[in-house]
Structure formats: C-alpha cells, structure tokens
Amino acid sequence: MSLGAAFEREIREQPDVWRRIAASPDAADFAGAVRGRDVVLVGSGSSLFVAMLGALALRRRGVRAAAIAASEAGFERGAYCGRTVVALSQSGRSADVLRAVEVLRPERLIAVTNDAEAPLAKRADLVIDVAAGRESAVPATKTVTSMVAVLLWGAGLVSGTSDRGRDALERVASDVEGWLADDVALADVAAAAARLALRRTIAVVGAGYGVAIACELALKIKESTYVHAEGFSAGEFRHGSAAILDASTALVGIVDDASRAIVERPLGEAARSDSLRYTIGADVGDLPRLGPLVAEPFNTLAWLVTGQVLALALGRVRGIDGDAPRGLSKFVL
C-alpha cells in the first residue's frame, strides 16, 4: 500500500461530497441563521482557517463577523460573549472548541461539523452536518472543503447577489474531478514536489480569500511532510518576511483576478533571491502553475485540493506516511 493511501482516497472523494452539498439545504440554513446578526466563528487548525475565510465572506456582504482561534476564546470574551457563535469542528469533539463555546456563552450556537451526534452538535441550536463521510487520514481534506462550500455559498445567500449556487458547485466538482483524473497534471505536481523537497522553507502567499487558503495549505505541508511552511498575506509578506527568501526557499502564490496585483509583486521580487516559485489558481507570467483553472464562484475549493495533492506528493517524496503524521491525532482533547 502506498504512503498516504487514505489521504489520497479522501482527496479524490471530495467532488462527490460537494455534489451532496449542492443538493442539500445546508447553505440556505446557514444564511438564515446568520443574517442580520453579529457573528463570531471559532475553530482550531484547519477549521480556524475555514472560519477566517467564512468571516471574510460574511463581512464582504455586510455582516459583522470575526474569526478567532478556539484556544484563544478566553482572551476574546469581552468582545464576543453573547453573540451568535459558529463553531467549526470536523469531529465535533475538539476540547478547545467545546471550551470556547462555554466561554463565549452564545446567544445562538451554530455547529458546522461532520458528526451530527458529537457533543458540539448536541449543544447547538442549529447543526450543519457537512456529511463528508468517514475521514481517517489525520490531515483533514473533505471536511475542510465541505465546510468552505457551505460557508461561501451561505454568505452569498445572505446578500442575494452571489454567483455561488448549486450549478456553480456542481461545475467545480466536475472540473476538479477531471483534473484529479489527469495523469499529466498530477505528474506536474509530483515533479514540483520533487523540487520542493530540496527546499528548507516554503512560503505560501495570498490575498483576500487566498490568505486563509495560504495558511491552510502551509498547515497541510507541515503536518504531512514535516517541511517548514508558513502562510502569509501577500502584501504583508513584503513588509519584512520576504527577508527569508533565498535559494533554499520556495514561494507559492495563490492567485485569481481579484488578488493578482497584490500576489504577483512578491512573486516577481522573489526572482532576485533565486527562490523556487509556483502559482496555484491562475497564471502569473511564465511561472509554472499547479492545479486546474476553474470559475471564480468556488475557485477556493480547487486551490485547496491542489494544495492537498501537493502535500501528499511531497510527503511521498520524503518517505512520510501522510495518513498518520508523527505526534498528531484526528482531534485534540
């Protein structure tokens, strides 16, 4: 059996999970629960980055929304106690998330989880069960993208002006499924992984929705390959952190039309340092691009899957079993 067999299987299952979400009322239920409210989204690990993305999507549609780390909720109590809390946890058993709920004493609790019978769900006023199916690999994949799909679609429904909807979600499912079946495209990722394996640090940069995606992809690389990786806002990366770039580092940019002007600047400047450079999402000059080209409404899902495949391939190059990284478990007590 190949290294990361469960990780790979769960990556490939994601398009079907998105199709189930497209046929469900989850996004509409979420939109109805947050419309007109002050919202705080809490999570840990990958769920925190989903919370960041969801909070930004809501703010862009006029909802006062913030994202905080569940483990930091005690320090944020004064600002967020008594609000509508959206608690994100794939297992619904994360001790940090459960404690955050106790600390924040929500007026209304919305649980976004992959287990409708978990302790978090039993405390909630509304449960959004993303129904991603069993996820056994430690690096979360389909639970992450299913949560993203629900939150982004739901945020669009709040304002009624979004292109995100059932048809768009089904299209991206088909596009990503086709890319995952393309041996040439996956060979490009494997070749990139072989080059990245020789670098000591990987910086992932994005703007807008790309910031949370950059953080999540860096986490996937760290936990499944043990390579040092960090996610940054592309604009802020240029204010000091770019000093880490040299011939032993790599820079990966998350790019779409909205973020291009911000992200292409550090990518261009990194040429002077001889850093290895790639893009995910859209093309920037003649830099090699990884992943499929998909339409904007759910392009974040394609970015996430591309990063997951890259992390899987990089782990295999390094002889690491991404299913069970050292020192980690599926959820933290």
Q: What does it look like?
A:
This protein is of the alpha/beta class. The protein has two domains: 5-164, Rossmann fold, CATH 3.40.50.10490; 173-317, Glucose-6-phosphate isomerase like protein, domain 1 (Rossmann fold, 3-Layer(aba) Sandwich). It contains 14 helices and ten strands. The protein has helices spanning 5-12, 14-22, 26-34, 46-59, 73-80, 95-104, 119-123, 142-159, 166-180, 183-196, 209-225, 234-237, 260-269, 299-317; strands spanning 39-43, 65-69, 84-89, 108-113, 126-129, 201-206, 228-233, 249-254, 276-280, 289-290. The strands form two sheets. The protein has a five-stranded parallel beta sheet with strand order 2-1-3-4-5, with helices on both faces. Strands 7-6-8-9-10 form a five-stranded parallel beta sheet, sandwiched between helices.
